[in-house]
């Protein structure tokens, strides 16, 4: 991992998790409105089914995916593809990281006392401002860009001639 990735997110683990969540959500966006099953995700991410099942469960809790009504281990995008952004992926990664850190934080708060609260409040306010700025920027990146870039990699073949190729406009 390069230093720029660490400077942006401050954590290699967070960066890797954001990339995985973005990759999985991007797969759903590119397949939308069709469903995606666990075998498809395994093939395209190279990750084990167990990890992907946990990730899809988390994305369901975050209301980005919903289970397919008829097929187990299969999901659908829960909103329009153009509405899924990097902000959504980042929020998921942050929520997941916060959930993992919560037990340690509670123990530390019980052990530590009052004078440090002012420092905690200041750092928390700064963190909230920084996160809001990050969210605002990430919101501008819709994951349907992945769908367009993937389609652009392979030239589309036209089986019928373009009706506008020989069209002429005339103005009277």
- Which architecture does the CATH hierarchy give at level 2? Orthogonal Bundle
Termini separation comes to: 63 Å
Spatial order of the strands forming the largest sheet = 1-3-2
As a percent range, the share of strand residues is 5-15%
- Low-pLDDT residue spans: 153-160, 162-172
Largest sheet: 3 strands, antiparallel
Output the number of helix runs.
Answer: 7
Name the helix and strand elements from N-terminus to C-terminus, one letter apiece.
HHEHHEEHHH
CATH superfamily: Winged helix-like DNA-binding domain superfamily/Winged helix DNA-binding domain
What is the percent of helical residues? 55-70%
The assigned structural class equals mainly alpha
* Quaternary form: single chain
Radius of gyration computed on alpha carbons = 22 Å
In short:
The chain is mainly alpha-helical. The chain has 7 helices and 3 strands.
């Amino acid at each position: 991992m390069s230093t720029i990735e660490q400077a942006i997110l401050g954590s290699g683990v967070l960066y890797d998790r954001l990339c995985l969540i973005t990759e999985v959500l991007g797969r759903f966006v590119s397949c939308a409105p069709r469903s995606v099953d666990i075998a498809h995700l395994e093939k395209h991410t190279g990750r084990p089914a167990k990890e992907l099942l946990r990730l899809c469960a988390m994305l369901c809790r975050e209301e980005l995916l919903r289970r397919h009504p008829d097929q187990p281990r299969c999901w659908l995008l829960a909103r329009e593809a153009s509405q899924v952004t990097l902000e959504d992926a980042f929020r998921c990664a942050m929520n997941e990281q916060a959930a993992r850190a919560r037990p340690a934080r509670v123990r530390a708060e019980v052990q530590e006392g009052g004078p440090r609260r002012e420092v905690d409040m200041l750092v928390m306010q700064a963190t909230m401002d920084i996160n809001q700025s990050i969210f605002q920027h990430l919101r501008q990146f819709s994951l349907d860009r992945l769908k367009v870039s993937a389609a652009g990699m392979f030239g589309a073949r036209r089986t019928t001639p373009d009706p506008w190729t020989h069209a002429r406009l005339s103005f009277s």
